[in-house]
Amino acid sequence: MRIQTGFIFFCLLLCCASEEQSGHVVKVIDGDTFEMKSGNEKIRVRLFGIDSPERGQPFNVKAKEFTASLIAGKDIRVVVVDTDRYGRSVAEAYLMDGTHVNAAIVEAGYAWHFKQYSQDPELARLEAGAHAKRQGLWKEENPVAPWDFRRRRSK
User: Fold this and answer.
1) Are 102 and 123 in contact (CB under 8 A)?
2) Cα angle 44-18-116, degrees, rounded to a multiple of 5
3) Chain centroid to CA 92
4) β 75-83/19-30 pair status
5) Rounded Cα distance, 150 and 131, in Å
6) Distance between CA atoms of 104 and 141, rounded to whole angstroms?
7) What pLDDT, in 10s, does the model give residues 10-57?
8) Going along the chain, which residue ranges are E strands?
9) Of 40, 43, 72, 148, which cross-links 68 as Cys (Cβ 3.0–4.6 Å)?
10) Active-site residue numbers?
11) Closest C-alpha among 113, 106, 114 to residue 136
12) Are residues 55 and 30 in contact, defined by beta-carbon separation less than 8 angstroms?
């Protein structure tokens, strides 16, 4: 019952508190962040529910390259679920063909499912599948999650 309640809350959050925007990807910052142009406005987007390797971590460059190959120069639709402390829109992103960008990055093994912020069972399933197939960052013997890397670096 708790899972159903959480799912219903998540759906309400997406339906009621979200904002949908469309635009054109003009820059890929890293594996989970990009800039898009919507009208005359540039919007920096942090992908919701995933976390890609940080600069200085193995697979950081490959994660950025994968994300760029997926979205750079393309039209995109985002469903904004929050704004982070850096002013970025935190969002689910979709290509115009319906491809769920967040999920595609996790499935390819270039991001972790960020369980601290997302309970999405599909992202968890895709991460487990990439891990089992040793895809992307899961080729590493003991990959360090970005949140652990940031914590260690700040000490």
Assistant:
1) yes
2) 75
3) 7
4) antiparallel
5) 22
6) 22
7) 454 444 557 999 999 999 999 999 999 999 999 999 999 999 999 999
8) 19-30, 33-38, 41-47, 50-51, 75-83, 89-95, 112-113
9) 72
10) 46, 54, 88
11) 106
12) yes
Which amino acid is residue 41, in one-letter code?
A: E
Element (H, E) at 142: none
Residue 132, amino acid: A
For tokens 């469903």, the residue is: 79
Contacts of residue 151, defined as CB under 8 A and 6 or more positions apart, other chains included, come to none
Contacts with 64 (C-beta within 8 Å, 6 or more apart), sequence order? 28, 29, 30, 31, 52
Q: Which of 61, 133, 117 is nearest to 125 (CA)?
A: 133
The DSSP symbol for 58 reads: T
Could you tell me whether strands 112-113 and 41-47 are parallel, antiparallel, or unpaired per DSSP bridges?
unpaired
Residue linked to tokens 């820059």: 27
